[in-house]
Amino acid sequence: MLKETIIAKMIDFYRGNAEDISHFLKVYAFAHTIGGLEGLDASARDTLEIAAIVHDIACPLCREKYGKSWKAVRENVFRTKTGIRFLEAEMGAGGENGDPLPRI
Q1: Residue 73 burial (CB < 10 Å; 0-12/13-18/19+)?
Q2: Which pLDDT tens digit goes with each residue over 57-82?
Q3: Cα separation of 24 and 2, whole Å?
Q4: 3-state class of 9 per DSSP?
């Protein structure tokens, strides 16, 4: 039931973007199949499948902020220090006590 709720919320989150919805559903199906073939226990399989459902949750924000160019997103987000700053600034990410993310 939890996965179905998360899937429904992600469909709402993507606001009808068929490409994003189709992509995360395909990744979820692959994760489900691979988890079964690998013999994962129910808890590990649930974790894998939920991670698959939400794995691109930042994509709409990145497209809004940097445009649809994958190169622009990569240049602005995926550089290690910039990526950490992005997470801290945009998503409030941090440690359990709100500490900043560790520097790499």
Answers
A1: middle
A2: 888 877 787 776 666 666 666 554 55
A3: 16
A4: helix
Question: What pTM was computed for the model?
Answer: 0.63
In Å, how far from its chain's centre is CA 45? 17
**C-alpha to C-alpha distance for 22 and 28, rounded to whole angstroms:** 10
Q: Which residue has the higher pLDDT, 91 or 2?
A: 2
Q: What is the mean pLDDT of residues 5-29?
A: 90
Q: By CB neighbour count within 10 A (0-12 exposed, 13-18 middle, 19+ buried), where does 2 fall? A: exposed
Domains in the chain: boundaries: 1-57, 58-104
Residue 29's alpha-carbon distances to 21, 82, 86, in angstroms, are 12, 32, 30
How far is the C-alpha of 1 from the C-alpha of 50, rounded, in Å? 12
Q: What is the pLDDT of residue 56?
A: 85
- pLDDT at site 28: 96
d(CA 32, CA 27): 9
